[in-house]
Amino acid sequence: MSYSYSDPFPMRVLTGIQPTNVLHIGNLFGALIPALELQKENDLYMMIADYHAITVPHEAHALNESILTVAAAYLAVGIDPTKTVLFQQSQISAHTELAWILETIAYMGEAKRMTQFKDKSGDKQDNVSVGLFAYPILMAADILLYDAKNVPVGHDQKQHLELARDLAQRFNSSHGQTFVVPDPLICKHGARLKSLTEPDKKMSKSAASAKSYISLMDDPDLIHKKIRSAVTDSQQLITFDESREGLYNLLTIFSLATGRPADEIANEYIEKGMKELKDNLSEVLCSYLLPIQTKMKKLLGDKQELTRIINNGSASAKKVADAKLKEVKKKIGVIL
What we know:
The chain folds into 2 domains: 12-192 and 303-332, Rossmann fold (3-Layer(aba) Sandwich); 210-296, Tyrosyl-Transfer RNA Synthetase.
């Protein structure tokens, strides 16, 4: 069955990813692969959240390349731009315009309670950008512009979605039914892959050491090195036990790359030892990533076509966003 942007779908879903640094397997299994299932049954909007990426210092050329890389990754895993609206946030001015309107009804106390801001700013809250403080409100605008009923979020973003819900309900209460109040879709597995070097922390593309994650574009030798050096523990037997954080993480990756239950894999290696498990996991992961890497390289080799796909998706998203913004502006009394 083929779809166009105007075809009816049962439910609209919005998801997005920041084009920062590098994409890793946590992004792959936590966001990109689950999006394929969402694409099958929903009106899926996938956003390249480039305005969110500039809340911290960045290099312009690197951001430009990252935007293309994120688009290539979406397409390489199977996102179909004739079924899914793949768009670039910064091409649609309604995002920042609605964010300002929502900032006028958001409370300072709400923004200060956002744990992501506390974590990222640490003890330097007076010296970080206002954008880092306010970006959950921009995220709310991203969601509410498209009447998205469901938004896939990791556990660390659930608080931001709750803010979007609060703002939607507050605006609706004051100005009449305008926004769909969104519900979270929590990914139970891949979204919570852990660092290879610090398995008590989430795998992150902003980590200080590249050894802590597997990039989508890492070559086989590098993947083998990173898996071999992954932190586990001194116990000999292989068991699927969440308290053994490093091993649990490796078995989770093994499961995601093969589609086999993690406890079944653990039983297979129970007496074989950590070295054999790591070596085999490396081989499995290299095989899994190879076709994705091949497709990404091909897509990035034709940046003109990749840009065309992004621009087309952005034009389609802009029609929806502009219509919602016009409705909001009429409700608040600024359209004469």
